[in-house]
Amino acid sequence: MQSKSFIFARTVFRSIGQIMLQENALTGLLFLVGIFYGSVPGGIAALLSAVTGVLTAQLLQYDRQEIEQGLYGFSATLVGVAMVFYFQPVPVIWIAVIIGSALATILQHVFIVKKLPGFTFPFIIVTWILLYVFHHLIIEPNSVAVVNEMIEKDDFATSIHGFGEVIFQDSIIGGLLFFLGVFINKPIAALYGITGAILSAYIAIHLSEPALDIEMGLFSFNALLCAITFAGDEPVDGIFVLFSVVLTVIIDIAMLRMQWSVLTFPFVAASWVTLTLKRWIPLPPKGIAPDK
């Protein structure tokens, strides 16, 4: 019989893994290692936020199975990492990490209960609010942003940076750990993710977006999340991946040009549109090819 401590730890790691839709504790552990590699405060914030999300769900007596699947911790985790990414980790920011994580968990519950695909939307809403509060109402110094000189110029490096940027990491090591985390749980999703990241980069290049931003994966991380979401074994899955990736890049560029904080909103919006499209289009059952 598994101990309560083991189940709790597994739930926390699954929550972190669910950031990229992977219900796998080892995936979550690799993600956490990648975050710690890039930033110790970021790693602490990720762990604290995931724990806060799980404890909030348990305290509010949400469905136990859904909690153990990690469905209540991934948006919370992103809130925590985002706060120490955007701001210096002073005491008030740590308070915001805990409060924001709890709020994201409660919002996630609303989507789950209503059986709506919320994805990371609770993280987006809470983080937008916190960014507004700390930028306009409570003036806190921004985190020191260090932009490394981009030596890698190849497609693989760009796509790996895309994996890293999903959780605010700009290192190749972090991105590789995130890619590996997805690959060990669902190889086809990881490979679709790489493809989506490369495709989104080429679209951004042809639309004359800044080269450094492209190489850093800033136009790839939302696209690869879409690719992971719609990855599958059927040819039609590739069509939905392609559609969602292209739409994601368009939304991404539009938001950047309007100087909005992008976060993962392009992924969420494009996924909602793609899911709606899937409902409208009659498809053959899985594994059955259409008549020629």
UniProtKB/TrEMBL annotation:
Domain of life: Bacteria
Transmembrane intervals: 44-62, 69-87, 93-112, 119-139, 159-182, 189-208, 214-232, 239-256
Membrane topology (UniProt): Multi-pass membrane protein
Transmembrane helix in keyword set: yes
A GO molecular-function annotation: urea transmembrane transporter activity
Major subcellular site: membrane
Record site feature (Important for channel permeability), residues: T264
GO CC terms of this entry: plasma membrane
Record's subcellular location: Cell membrane
InterPro entries (alphabetical): Ammonium/urea_transptr (IPR029020), Urea_transporter (IPR004937)
Keywords assigned: Cell membrane, Membrane, Transmembrane, Transmembrane helix
Family that this chain belongs to: Belongs to the urea transporter family.
Protein name listed in UniProt: Urea transporter
